[in-house]
Design brief:
This protein is globular. It is an alpha+beta fold and 378 residues long. It is 34% helix and 15% strand.
Length: 378
């Protein structure tokens, strides 16, 4: 951490962005993935144009509650990046997007829908064209591919040139690799201050049960520092199926590989600094809990500013790139998008706590609680 949470700077939209480069309209974007608010693309540039090696482009969707990327980037630089050691952050920069490119990609999204290649829950929502001029360039955490295989000699040969190989990746996304990318959201690694005395479930596990969602790891286990509890949590994070492009050592099955990956992640979580940083931040940014903060109202603006920062940190994504040869686990934190508290969010956050307490999910007394068998430890 490079600055105290007591001196968080409120970001404004008045940063000097005259130096921000423009993405050439000739850049080819390849749809990679999308979430509720953004779409992620790979970039490919023609010879002689600016190149963007090891970077992805994130463009925002047209949502009423979404911040323009210029303001979101200012918050990222002034509010959230100072909270974490720089080496844990996903490198991010701002780039200007030509309107023609946004229009072109919206046409492409509609074509994906027509072909049934876009997730059903994302259909009907497109990139913001009118009120957005910028996008985010973010570090590509995709697994590094193995050198190209010469099938005529059955030998491994290096790629002919970095530029050509980078362009080939846009068309060959499943090249063989000895690395694995794992993404997860740690969520509430400190129990909510609004939870009732005698709680038996953490906020995250209680909320999942109230929504009848699939059981997953308990954040309190992940942040406990206890090897057995961390191992139980990590078991939910390691993929159940072997990725199609992941090459295992000769004679090793996926079950054995899973065990090796789990143990490497356990060591990373227990011995590394990331979980400790998250636990500390959750406690410092939100010492009162959603119900108390909502009751304070606008008279406690400093408390409310810290609380929305806490909600942002609770929704960040951890990206882990695991190398099966070296054993190295490279970790980066991303998706630090400010939660504003607008559009009824203050009442919603407090209301969620009220529901979890009143309907018995925190204390584990709702109907069928014993059969569910989901209990959390401090």
């Amino acid at each position: 951490m490079t600055t105290s949470t007591s001196v968080i700077v409120a970001a404004t939209a008045h940063d000097d962005l005259n130096h921000v480069p423009t993405l050439p309209p000739s850049t080819t974007l390849s749809y990679l993935a999308e979430g509720a608010a953004n779409v992620i693309y790979r970039l490919s540039s023609p010879p002689g144009a600016p190149q963007y090696p090891n970077q992805l482009l994130r463009l925002r969707k047209a949502l009423p509650s979404a911040q323009p990327n210029k303001l979101a980037y200012a918050h990222l630089l002034h509010t959230f990046h100072p909270l974490f050691p720089a080496h844990l952050l996903l490198p991010t920069s701002l780039i200007r997007i030509p309107p023609s490119l946004l229009a072109r990609e919206n046409v492409a999204l509609r074509e994906l829908e027509a072909a049934g290649k876009r997730p059903a829950k994302r259909v009907g929502l497109y990139l913001e064209e009118v009120d957005e001029q910028f996008g985010f360039l973010i570090m590509d955490m995709s697994p590094h591919p193995l050198p190209l295989l010469d099938t005529t000699t059955a030998t491994i040969t290096p790629p002919p040139s970095p530029g050509l190989f980078a362009r080939a990746l846009a068309f060959l996304p499943n090249l063989r690799t000895r690395q694995l990318l794992i993404e997860f959201k740690p969520k509430w690694v400190v129990q909510s201050r609004s939870a009732p005395d005698g709680w038996r479930r953490c906020r995250t596990c209680a909320l999942r049960l109230s929504k009848a969602q699939k059981h997953s790891f308990c954040p309190l286990d992940l942040a406990s520092g206890d090897e057995e509890r961390v191992r139980r949590a990590v078991g939910f994070i390691v993929p159940q199926k072997q990725p199609a492009n992941l090459v295992l050592a000769r004679g090793m099955g996926w079950g054995e590989a899973q065990g090796v990956i789990r143990e490497r992640l356990v060591r990373f979580v227990v011995e590394g600094e990331m979980m400790g940083e998250l636990v500390r931040l959750h406690g410092e940014l939100d010492p009162y809990g959603p119900v108390a903060v909502h009751a304070m109202g606008e008279r406690e603006s400093g408390v409310r500013e810290r609380f929305v920062s806490a909600m942002t940190v609770r929704d960040l994504t951890v990206f882990l790139r695991v190398d099966l040869d070296s054993g190295e686990v490279e970790a980066r934190i991303g998706d630090l998008d400010l939660k504003t508290g607008e559009a009824g969010k203050w009442a919603y956050w407090a209301g969620v706590e009220g529901k979890l307490a009143e309907e018995g999910y925190y204390e584990g007394v709702e109907e069928g609680a014993e059969e569910k068998g989901v209990w959390c430890r401090p």
